Amino acid sequence: MAYSKSSCVVALALLLFVALAFTANGAKLSARYYDKTCPNVQRVVRSVMARNVAGQPGIAPAVLRLFFHDCFVNGCDGSVLLDSTPFWDSEKDAVPNASLRGFEVVEQIKSLLEHDCPATVSCADILALASRDAVAMLGGPAWNVPLGRKDSRAAHKDAAEAGLPSPQDNLTALVSAFRERGLDARDMTALSGAHTVGMASCENYRERVHGDGDIDPSFAETRRRNCPPSGNDGGMAPFDEQTPMRFDNAYYKDLIARRGLLSSDQALYGSGGKQDGLVEMYSRDGETFARDFAKAMVRMGNIRPPKGTPVEVRLSCNVVNN
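Given the sequence above, the corresponding structure tokens read:
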């Protein structure tokens, strides 16, 4: 799969912005962080992602989702990748993370990098790079990823249970969740556009299609066929039924047509004012959406673990070092 034509433009536009990023310990992140210590890191990540996405395209949105769920809990520290231990429950076991997948792809990348440059590249950085490549391989923008993150030495299941946005969240709750992480309404609206790819299970959109009045009737009827009022939580539906595996701006067109799959999707449109203006702008201008999404991904990737968090470069992404 090829990168989009806008990739180079977006990457160049982000060069100055990238320089403003910081790690958990205050040191600057840099897109050139591994130039001397592991110069092939980006090639390795891209090649593993390309091989997996070619065989299973759904891996791309899955890896992108992993990055979101990592950064929203304790910052971008790779904690979502950790298995349970006698000392903590894995974030993988939190209810909002029950359907996460793509962990094996991150481990494949880590294994190759440990061979090429041992104990050098963090799992958090691998996830940041892999999510960028996932977007690009689906036809979306590429950007320069600031690097130099470290991996947490603990997981935070309770924080995942409490802190991740819910499919039923209203606009106020969404704005608050993003603001707590240093992201504004424009970041939130652009990042929500990640739902232009991927699927959701019935349990996440059941309330929307069976009881929400702010929905296109024909869309609701179609979705109800695979999602009865109770049971059968496995019924999957695409967020964007027009181009479910192409990273474009169709998601915003769906919101204007009242065809957002999740209640939290549709919450972005209908309140009036600047919020509706953002959705309408992205629905008309795919290039602006791509540029804002790339900037927002860098900002989200800058979310740091709390000061004093024990960190390291893990040798395997699912367990801490001895």
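The mean pLDDT is 92. Try to locate this feature in the token string yourself.
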